[in-house]
Amino acid sequence: MSNLIFLFFLSYLLGSIPFALIVSLPQGVDPRKEGSKNPGATNVARLLGKKWGIITFLGDSLKGVFALFIAYLFLEKIPYPKELVLAGTAFFAVLGHLFSIFLKFKGGKGVATTIGVFLVLAPKAMLISLIIFFIAVFISNYVSVGSLLATALLPLNIFLMNYPSEYIICSFFLAILIWIKHKDNIKRLLKGEEKTWRKIKK
């Protein structure tokens, strides 16, 4: 039990690493105070350009991948089902991004880290969600629309591809948290005030 608690706490700490700030603060920009005020890849891209947005996205995604890599190393020492351990690790990694201990339990919206963990746990289902994401962004011109649709449909994709039920449950609750984190985006979308991805710097 102690190993499991340690693993989940470590996953949360890894997820809490604020790559948006690591990328932006050395350049004199604080994404928590500018743009959409969200410490995430899309806001960094708007403030500093696509290159820095991509770097932030990769950092936020890979911290979830790294958390799962550590989980695989712990599996033999934890007397619980493999799928439960991996799903819990993924959940806490994304939870760390959403409510970072380094940002007074505030954080980004969790999409990049969710992509990272499910590219490891359920790659085929995640790839389908990524295709949905890009199609939705292309049609709507809004990154938030793509993010909301992709995360909402991820549990269904995982279910249809017969991945373990633990992964379905994990993705379901993460989708709820991600939608809650997008509440301001949803309000702006309904009012026609959301910024399009075309306004991102090159």
Automatic annotation (TrEMBL):
Keyword DNA repair listed? The answer is no
User: Which compartment or compartments is the protein found in?
Assistant: Cell inner membrane
Q: Which UniProt keywords apply?
A: Acyltransferase, Cell inner membrane, Cell membrane, Lipid biosynthesis, Lipid metabolism, Membrane, Phospholipid biosynthesis, Phospholipid metabolism, Transferase, Transmembrane, Transmembrane helix
One Gene Ontology term, aspect cellular component: plasma membrane
Q: Which residues cross the membrane?
A: 6-25, 52-72, 84-103, 115-139, 159-180
Catalyses: an acyl phosphate + sn-glycerol 3-phosphate = a 1-acyl-sn-glycero-3-phosphate + phosphate
Q: Name one GO molecular function term.
A: acyl-phosphate glycerol-3-phosphate acyltransferase activity
Q: Does the keyword Cell membrane apply?
A: yes
State the PANTHER family in the record. Answer: GLYCEROL-3-PHOSPHATE ACYLTRANSFERASE-RELATED (PTHR30309:SF0), INNER MEMBRANE PROTEIN YGIH (PTHR30309)
- Which family does the record assign? Belongs to the PlsY family.
Protein name according to UniProt: Glycerol-3-phosphate acyltransferase
Query: What organism is the protein native to?
Result: Thermodesulfobacterium geofontis (strain OPF15)
